[in-house]
Amino acid sequence: MNIKLFLFFIFLSFNLFSSDVQDPLEDLNRKIFNFNESLDNSILKPTAEIYRSLVPMPAKKGITNFFKNISEVDNSINQLLQGKPKESISDLSRFLINSTFGLFGLIDVASSMGLERHNEDFGQTLGVWGVSSGPYLMLPFLGPTSLRNVVTSPISSFLSGKTAINEDDLRFIVNTLDIIETRERLLDAETLLIGDKYNFVKDAYSQSRIYEINDGENVEDEFLEDFDDLYLD
After folding, report:
1. Phi and psi, residue 143, nearest 5°
2. DSSP string computed for 94-154
3. What phi and psi, each to the nearest 5 degrees, are found at residue 137?
4. Which of 182, 86, 110, 112 lies closest to 142 in space, CA to CA?
5. Gap between the Cα atoms of 207 and 203, Å rounded
6. Exposed end of the chain (fewer CB within 10 Å): N or C?
7. From residue 176, how far is each of 15, 93, 171, 173 by CA, in Å?
8. How far is residue 174 from each of residues 181, 196, 198, measured CA to CA in Å?
């Protein structure tokens, strides 16, 4: 899930979150959530903390840029499927510019040229087309999702640049680094978690997906810019 959205909805949880999320498998979901929490506390979180302490900020920024860049083709295709050709061309341009002038995406040259980055996937596309998200699901190792996103995630995975890596060992390293990098960016959000953590994560995930599908049209841009300054620069 996009880090900006996750942090944003954590901050606004008192006023925006509702209990209307379809969760017919809550008992099972909670057990899986507890399993994931145990795994995270024993392995993933300590690894992310080591990564934060050892990797200098410029290197971490480059790694983050790299993983954002390899998702641009997925972004571009889904923008087109959602009827947004201008954004589709912009995202494809970002990929071409950053992959060449940005040293395989390590440097975000495109943003400095005024090309804004977006975050799109086929699950969002189906949401734009009116397909219901279906029941909320908590998956082992993978975390919160919905039935709609479970069905569509293989498509976005295929469209990501990681599928072009032929060597199994290299693909494993890239996927592992992607997980660690994402977890490290979420470390600061933990202090904002309140109440029932399971419900908190469920609502944050569900609201963020609604936000993404609607391109944030009902959210104040000024607040999001402030969050950019605090967490993403």
Report:
1. 90, -155
2. HHHHHHHTTTTTTS-HHHHTT-------HHHHHHHTT----SEEEETTTEEEEHHHHHHHH
3. -135, 145
4. 182
5. 6
6. C
7. 36, 27, 8, 5
8. 10, 33, 29
> What backbone torsions phi and psi does residue 118 show, to the nearest 5 degrees?
-120, 170
Mean pLDDT computed over every residue of the chain? 82
Is 82 in contact with 40 (CB distance < 8 Å)?
Answer: no
Query: Distance of alpha carbon 131 from its chain centroid, rounded?
Result: 20
The one-letter code for the residue type at 233 is D
pLDDT higher than threshold 70 for residue 230: no
pTM of the shown model: 0.74
The C-alpha atoms of residue 199 and residue 78 are separated, in whole angstroms, by: 30
